[in-house]
Task: structure prediction
Amino acid sequence: MATASGSPSCRKHRTASSSFSLAAILLLISIMYCCPAGFVVAARERSAAAGGDSVMKERFEKWAAEHGRTYEDSLEKARRFEVFKSNAQFVDSFNAAGGKKSPRLTTNKFADLTNEEFAYAYGYAPVSTNYPTMRNGTGFMYGNVSLSDVPSSINWIDKGAVTNVKDQGKDCASCWAFSAAAAVEGIHEIRTHNLVSVSAQQLMDCSTGANNHGCNRGDMDEAFRYITGNGGIASEADYAYEKQQGTCRASGKQAAASIRGFEYVPPNNETALLLAVAHQPVSVSLDGGGSVFQLFHAGVFGAGRAETCTTDLNHAVTAVGYGTDEHGTKYWLMKNSWGSDWAEGGYIKIVRDDAASTTGRCGLAMQASYPVA
Ligand SMILES: *[C@@H]1O[C@H](CO)[C@@H](O)[C@H](O)[C@H]1NC(C)=O
Ligand SMILES: *[C@@H]1O[C@H](CO)[C@@H](O)[C@H](O)[C@H]1NC(C)=O
Ligand SMILES: *[C@@H]1O[C@H](CO)[C@@H](O)[C@H](O)[C@H]1NC(C)=O
Result:
């Protein structure tokens, strides 16, 4: 079992420079809030000159009603309308330019957030520059499995090894805990035929080593180490999610699942990742901070069009399957933790065997790991 450490992501705590840029973003937002009168008037004049925003306004009202969104005052509403409008225009032009294979975007629940606000709220942070780009895939237990011995597609949801989609919530970058929890739930079900949601909150409260910081990012590897050392992890029912870090209350709680350790998938190798996912759900990190991710609706991310993400690992999900869609596009099936009302029931398909990169699309093959049970 591997012992290497270090990580990026919604995973990594904010660096000085990222909190500086965060401060700059917040300052910018507050400046916009502090002097919105001129901003709004200017926007109104622009739209009046362009023949009116009435269609877009109607679309915004309908969206706000559908999502139960209310705003503090008319100035905030005007500001949110401008953000919505810009996102809606992005969605429309992306969808119009897409071919048959291309995925579709939509004005989803994140449509009144700028990409910067979205990134702050849902886990994005610039990756530390000293992140080791290669991790040694020591003790890869699936390394000797032949490709011809694994199925051409697999879906761990259908196989009953995946719990319901969770929602990490606004302003809590705890994706790392949900990614690790889903991987543990998967191998536990595969070994015991008992599907149980395990406690992401316990990981946030109790797995607090060098890299793990509750709502302020963390690392799945360290979470697996904690669960191994602790002799297991409680169920979600026994130790429920609170969307903020608290004191560790694991003592006296019954272990709902346990693991013996974890291993890394050899990096930058989608074949190795496939051999692992063929056997169990796998924790994956990737760039989930872009507008396409934010506003994703359906289809395969990255199919039939140019690069729409980077390899800055800022988010963590769980690979729960792979396959080939009706257009012949090979994909990974990823479980996210942004609620079941994002993308396809909370899941996203991402291009697999990416010809354009060795890292996997959005860096998905750069740092994958899985618990051993
Ligand atoms: C990977 O292994 C090589 C050679 O054994 C070593 O030099 C390197 O430091 C290792 N990298 C990491 C991230 O552990
Ligand atoms: C894979 O096969 C090689 C050669 O047969 C063997 O030395 C090695 O221990 C095997 N690795 C695993 C993880 O089973
Ligand atoms: C990728 O991983 C597979 C399975 O472990 C291995 O057989 C293959 O040699 C690896 N490819 C590269 C380029 O390292």
